[in-house]
Amino acid sequence: GAGVSQSPSNKVTEKGKDVELRCDPISGHTALYWYRQRLGQGLEFLIYFQGNSAPDKSGLPSDRFSAERTGESVSTLTIQRTQQEDSAVYLCASSLGGGPSYEQYFGPGTRLTVT
Amino acid sequence: RKEVEQDPGPFNVPEGATVAFNCTYSNSASQSFFWYRQDCRKEPKLLMSVYSSGNEDGRFTAQLNRASQYISLLIRDSKLSDSATYLCVGYFSGSARQLTFGSGTQLTVLP
């Protein structure tokens, strides 16, 4: 079946511009996660959605970052007034449920470059 | 201090060698651990969960030592296709149901 998909695969933007990244989770997966991975680094948790519960935004690095999810489907991550330090790969993952009992399946990521 | 720490490597080993990676964690309120594999410029994929009793999956053996707060991954008879970055991942109680990833250990298996 179809895996997690993300778009765009690559995005180059100028400093100060807003960007919107999209994630399509696996159908039926109630949990959705966004992570950021800087070059040579591990994954940093950004935000977590589970069903209709309030999202866990504890990983968002600043108020320039926000994310939405429509029901249990598509999610968008928005970065306003991008800065060069926002350059990274943004990975989305989904799982059947929340917590460690459920394997997270990752999308291919969006590589964001802020010039 | 990072919650999950790994030696970044790189580990360069010949084909057929046995290689071991360790990972330490600082949060004793740990619940579960995993090893993920990430190929160059690809997304991470779950390799195996780590159980206190130790678990094996083919050539891969994972161990968890709660007393010393470290996790290990042993790869026997390494293959060229094992070349990747191996991410140690922990799930800690109170972390709001999200995983904490180490920075990864890079492995290159040489012909």
Please describe what this structure looks like.
The complex is a heterodimer of chains A (about 120) and B (about 110). Chain A has no helices and ten strands. Chain A has about 120 residues and is mainly beta. In chain A, strands 2, 4, 5, 8, 9 and 10 form a six-stranded mixed sheet that branches. Chain A is globular and about 40 Å long. Chain A starts with a strand and ends with a strand. The model of chain A has no long low-confidence stretch (mean pLDDT about 95). Chain B is mostly beta strands. In chain B, strands 2, 4, 5, 9, 10 and 11 form a six-stranded mixed sheet that branches. A five-stranded antiparallel sheet of chain B has the order 1-3-8-7-6, with no helix packed on it. In chain B, a hairpin with a 2-residue loop joins β6 (about 55) and β7 (about 60-65). Chain B is globular and about 40 Å long. The termini of chain B are far apart. Classes of the chains: A mainly beta (about 120), B mainly beta (about 110).
How helical, in percent, are the residues of chain A? under 10%
Number of strands of chain B: 11
* Largest interface, C-beta within 8 A: A-B, 24 and 21 residues
Q: What fraction strand of chain A? A: over 45%
Summed up, the helix count of chain B is 0
Mean pLDDT of chain B, as a whole number?
89
Largest sheet of chain A: 6 strands, mixed
The proportion of strand residues of chain B reads over 45%
Count of individual beta strands of chain A? 10
Low-confidence stretches of chain A: none
Distance between the termini of chain B: 37 Å
The average pLDDT score of chain A comes to 93
Helix content of chain B: under 10%
SSE pattern of chain A, N- to C-terminal: EEEEEEEEEE
> Major β-sheet of chain B, in short?
6 strands, mixed
Unreliable stretches of chain B (pLDDT < 50, length at least 5) are none
The termini of chain A sit apart by 37 Å
Radius of gyration of chain B: 13 Å
Number of distinct helices of chain A: 0
**Secondary structure category of chain A:** mainly beta
